[in-house]
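My main concern about presentation is that the manuscript never shows what a single data entry looks like. The format is easy to grasp once an entry is in front of the reader. For illustration, here is how one protein appears when written out as sequence plus structure tokens:
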Amino acid sequence: MSFSIIVFQGPSASGKSTLQARLGLPRIVTWTSRAPRAGEQDGREYHFATREQMELMHRQGRMLEINEYRGNLYGTSISSLEEAGQDGQVRSSVMEAKGARLVKELLGERALLIGVSASREQLERRLFERKVSIEEQQFRMASFDEEIAALSQCDMVIRNDESQFHVAESIIDYIRLGLEQK
């Protein structure tokens, strides 16, 4: 089996991006309609486009999915997924459950879906420690149950609670080693 993309999914603050970074694979660069933040470059953090451009790309069938978050669109282009792995280099992405499911439908066995979970209490504490506003914490945690339920679509689920960080990191290290040996 040869993967071309590894997708991380799970609730907010579960550690998806942290585990993705530990894996050390190039990221699929996704799209957004929000303005670049200081230091961000088009094509590195995101492909920046207008809402109209992204909606047009979606209508033309060039976007796998688009989601609205806090008034901005975010999405993944089909071409970025189809090109993943063509150069022999596996890519990675962090996605919501719907997007991860669509990637699996598009790429089948070439996609490895890794769910990342932690307890509600752990996630709430992480958001608090990040100094996320109470309103934002409530917004992010509102989908917790739905996101945990969606982990059933994953090929594997990593428990990333505080007491199991070392286990989660070890699993990612083993995956990285396996990819390096192929």
In short: The chain has a mean pLDDT of 94. Helices lie at 16-23, 51-59, 78-83, 97-107, 120-129, 134-141, 144-150, 165-181. Residues 165-181 form the longest helix (17 residues).
